[in-house]
Amino acid sequence: MERDLPDVIAEITAAFEAYERALVADDVEGILAFFAPAAVRFGIADQQIGIEEQARWRRAQGGLPPGRRLKDTIIQGYGESVAVVTTLFGYPGSDVLGRQSQTWVRLPEGWRIVTAHVSEPARQPT
Q1: Contacts of 36 (CB under 8 A, 6+ apart)
Q2: Residue 1 has pLDDT above 70, yes or no
Q3: Among the listed residues 81, 123, 83, 80, the one whose alpha carbon sits nearest the alpha carbon of residue 101
Q4: Each residue of 38-72: pLDDT tens digit?
Q5: Domain coverage including residue 70
Q6: Is 1 inside a domain boundary?
Q7: Helix (H, G, I), strand (E, B) or coil at 104
Q8: Is residue 102 part of a domain?
Q9: What CATH number does residue 30 fall under?
Q10: For residues 111 and 15, is the Cβ–Cβ distance under 8 A?
Q11: For residues 84-96, average pLDDT
Q12: How do 35-42 and 110-119 pair as beta strands?
């Protein structure tokens, strides 16, 4: 079945919003369900290759600080089976905006994240 690009964007928007809810709720199993088995994730001070490494890391990591907010989220579709999500994120009491990107691929089991990258800009010396 061929899909229109707006349909792909709507599907990824819904998947990304569900992922974000799981992330904020620290629902580890819910978060992991969005990743492909061989997904590569680079975090601010960590990296995981494959779902097993990510599961171990997420279970040890603990939840996010409260009040996470997103800014300038962009969802781009590339055909009917690939999409890229980029967003900025921040927390109350901090002017630092982190950066997050995800590549989503339509697999037989549904849309899954195959690569993810999270970073924060280097702090400028005062």
Answers
A1: 51, 105, 107, 112, 113, 114
A2: no
A3: 83
A4: 999 999 999 999 999 999 999 999 899 999 999 99
A5: 6-119
A6: no
A7: strand
A8: yes
A9: 3.10.450.50
A10: yes
A11: 95
A12: parallel
